[in-house]
User: Which sequence fits this backbone?
């Protein structure tokens, strides 16, 4: 029999958040083990419920949600996104510039597929949310990683970015607030990146899906609000800020220097048409969420559950010898560093695998986020405080044993 093989297009595509370690964890669960999951930013499964009004309106609207919609989405939720962009000071966005998708994920893949020819380069952060690297590769492009500097609050290293721009570079991806580091970039850093894009005529893809998940009274500035002479594609959605990962509701906004991008926009429109439309109940949810009570504030503000868990997780992690971690200012994650002398890890996937097997705690290895060395890992701080204490106790015990090997 002829072997059925995956396409060559997948040769460089990697998405380790749902990779072999998760597979092992599933297997262990099937065998009856209880695993503490610090691996995925899936809020609802940790008791962070979506706002009631979203659920209610989706149920009420289900009867109206059985048909296809316009490929870009229903008018009312797109109008709600348009108002949202206005509230974030993004100028000149019309309803035509807004695309609704099955989560931001679908739109990220679509945006790359519409843009890239074989060999085109896209600057992607290291560490990154790995869908970006994977989407560039799948589209025939070549992801080039610029370093985010742990010594500088994980801000992008602008000089590294500058050095890596070539005549093949088409775009820069900026994930702000950042997954996996929890960094929130100051306006000066955003302006420096925009200046590079301006000089080299690059598109900026701004992934701002955590723009309301902010701690310590921090404020988020949308990159697209800072210039109108660069093309911005801004990604956002309900998954995180509205605890609705499962509703698969996201959006993409084209803004800034659109005049020279007519052909690209035609490509986006074609790909949006080919998948007909985003799931319609999710589209209804967008309208209610953006117009409704912004209950995320109660989770991230003083006394909020997410804030308390961030503080607890950071304290427990950094009490472990040889573990350091920049405290996240936003999002749901921490990306701690393991001192390579104390913990000489050669293969961090194997490290995650052993932690799982020995202590039943599931993390994601740093190289899964295209980090350059096997000396980091990512955790979420979503389990309740008791589970977090339990999990970090186990990680501490495992690391103690690792040091003594
Ligand atoms: N962008 C970032 C930075 C993310 O962390 C995620 C999900 O974790 C996504 C995009 C995808 O979100 P969605 O659920 O809207 O597809």
Assistant:
């Amino acid at each position: 029999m002829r072997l059925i093989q995956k396409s060559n297009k997948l040769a460089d595509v990697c998405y380790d958040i749902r990779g072999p370690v998760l597979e092992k964890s599933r297997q262990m669960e099937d065998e009856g083990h209880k695993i503490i999951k610090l691996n995925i930013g899936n809020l609802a499964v940790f008791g962070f419920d979506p706002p009631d009004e979203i659920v209610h309106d989706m149920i009420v609207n289900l009867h109206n949600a059985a048909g296809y919609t316009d490929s870009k989405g229903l008018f009312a939720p797109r109008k709600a996104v348009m108002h949202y962009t206005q509230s974030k000071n993004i100028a000149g966005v019309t309803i035509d510039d807004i695309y609704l998708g099955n989560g931001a994920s679908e739109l990220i893949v679509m945006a790359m597929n519409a843009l890239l020819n074989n060999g085109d380069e896209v600057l992607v952060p290291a560490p990154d949310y790995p869908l970006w690297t994977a989407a560039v590769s799948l589209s025939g492009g070549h992801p080039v990683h610029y370093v985010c500097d742990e010594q500088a609050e994980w801000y992008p290293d602008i000089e590294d970015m500058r050095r890596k721009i070539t005549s093949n570079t088409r775009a820069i991806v900026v994930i702000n607030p950042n997954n996996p580091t929890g960094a929130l970039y100051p306006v000066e850093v955003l302006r420096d990146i925009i200046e590079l894009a301006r000089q080299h005529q690059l598109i900026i893809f701004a992934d701002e899906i955590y723009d309301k998940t902010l701690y310590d009274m921090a404020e988020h500035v949308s990159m697209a609000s800072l210039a109108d002479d660069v093309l911005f594609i801004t990604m956002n959605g309900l998954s995180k800020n509205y605890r609705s990962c499962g509703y698969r509701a996201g959006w993409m906004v084209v803004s800034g220097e659109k005049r020279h991008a007519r052909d690209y926009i035609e490509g986006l429109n074609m790909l949006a048409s080919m998948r007909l439309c985003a799931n319609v109940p999710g589209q209804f949810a967008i309208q209610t969420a953006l117009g409704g009570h912004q209950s995320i504030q109660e989770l991230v503000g003083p006394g909020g559950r997410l804030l308390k868990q961030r503080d607890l997780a950071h304290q427990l992690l950094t009490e472990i010898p040889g573990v350091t971690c920049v405290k996240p200012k936003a999002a749901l994650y921490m990306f701690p560093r393991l001192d390579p002398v104390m913990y000489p890890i050669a293969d961090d996937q194997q490290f995650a695998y052993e932690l799982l097997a020995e202590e039943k705690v599931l993390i994601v290895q740093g190289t899964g986020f295209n980090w350059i060395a096997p000396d980091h890992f990512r955790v979420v701080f979503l389990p309740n405080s008791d589970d977090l204490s339990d999990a970090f106790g186990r990680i501490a015990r495992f690391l103690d044993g690792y040091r003594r090997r």
Summary: The mean pLDDT is 96. The chain has two domains: 8-48+298-403, 52-291.
